Amino acid sequence: MAICEVCFRHCEIAEGKLGACSARTCRDDAVVSANYGHITALALDPIEKKPLSRFCQGSKILSVGSFGCNLFCPFCQNHDISRSDGREFSDEITPEQLAELAFRYRDRGNIGVAFTYNEPLIGYEFVRDTASLVKQMGMKTVLVTNGTADLSVLEQIIPYIDAMNVDIKSMSEATYRDVLRGSLAMTKAFIERAVKDCHVELTTLIVPGMNDSELEMRELTGWIAGLTDREGNVIGSEIPLHVSRFFPRYRMTDRAATEVASVYALADVARGKLKYVYTGNC
Fold first, then answer.
1. CA 183 – CA 173 distance, rounded (Å)
2. What is the CATH number of the domain that holds 208?
3. Overall domain count for the chain
4. Residue 5 placed within a domain
């Protein structure tokens, strides 16, 4: 039995068993990544698809996913890999092989590797090992994450990360706790630290009845606007926010898609505090 320290959940994992994320296990009384080197998706994507709108615009990036997640969003669009032990349908690759593959794709406009599709932080060891090699090759690493990780995890990888898109799904701790089974406090702390050392963009999926009020958008953007850099300078108004439209998925198929007008209206509210606001899925 060992305790996982990756996120607030601190799963006690018995030998050979999995934590709540389905991607961390116990071997010889130590918690290790069960999804290390296991990939379920690989694609050369436009950087804007991450979404990153103010980082290496017009470029492409080799995007890779594994399996598992430490949130339980009922609207997850990748639940087939996030909510399963995907070892049986994944392929194995080493950090060296992935970095070399990214390097070979430079002639197709590739700038590096993006860890995305599932939650990459639950397998941060593979991210760290690959990203360090990618950096040595003069290429870039991008992280698309829910930000549900201890700062000790972030400190291990941030020297190698050039840009992140972090989901902040609500400004309600009750929503994080009861709907997503997560921690708003942990996500906010992650973002607050990340913006000090790399390019960060944020995404909020607007789910009807969950986080679609103007009041919550004002609270969110007011918090973002107050974020500071390493020297304590307020930089939050420069952080891009992607306001995205919800579609019925997974366990939330009984809820209607977000009205496009609602997404646009909330984006306008966000522009009262932030300089760069984008709409998605509209």
1. 7
2. 3.20.20.70
3. 1
4. no
